[in-house]
Known about the structure:
CATH architecture of the largest domain: 3-Layer(aba) Sandwich
Strand content: 5-15%
Oligomer: single chain
Strand order of the largest sheet: 2-1-3-4-5
Number of strands: 5
Radius of gyration: 19 Å
Amino acid sequence: MNARSKPLHVLPCVDSSARTDAIDVLRSTLGLDMLSVSPVSTLVYRALSDAPDAIVIVTKDLGSIAWRDARDLTETLSSTPTLLLASQIYGLVRKRATALHIRSVLPLDVTSDQLISAIHATVAGLAVTLEPFRKIEDDHTAWTTAGVLGETQRVVEHMTARETVVLRLIAMGLGNKEIASRLAISEHTAKSHLSSILAKLGVTSRTEAVTIGIMCGLVAI
């Protein structure tokens, strides 16, 4: 993926009941131009007037928001890459996000690095989903940051150098035949590399593989 010469213009839309910590951190991030926060009621107007590269909606619960002009909103979000940050992520929320053409759904406690990567990935046409961190005292069931980092490290260690190259070519939009030509290998070998990558990352599609690759640092934006 080619690096952009200009920063991404990001329009944050924040529900009055939600915290804006994640958005505040991004204001000092290179490569991102965070526009002034839009309330839910003026999101469509702001999106049309500011023409952002991406929209980040922050809310405790997407289902609790009473959207006005739902048709105009859907048209706006379908034409602008949009991410949702919500404290409540469950089946109905995902369905509503899909209906509104919101591509990526992340928890409010997402790290700044994950959010930055997710914004770039969403603008690139990918869909990023993450489950909320579970802060449980029980050592046997707690999902801690150290655990997440350890899992990420294991993924990186299991990927061979050639598989990493193939994953990066997939991220560039190349098909098996193009990858084979680029690496001077057979198309069958390219397909084998793809199958191995999907198995190691525990996913079933190229898009999911690239998304995880971005989040793990295997694929640069």
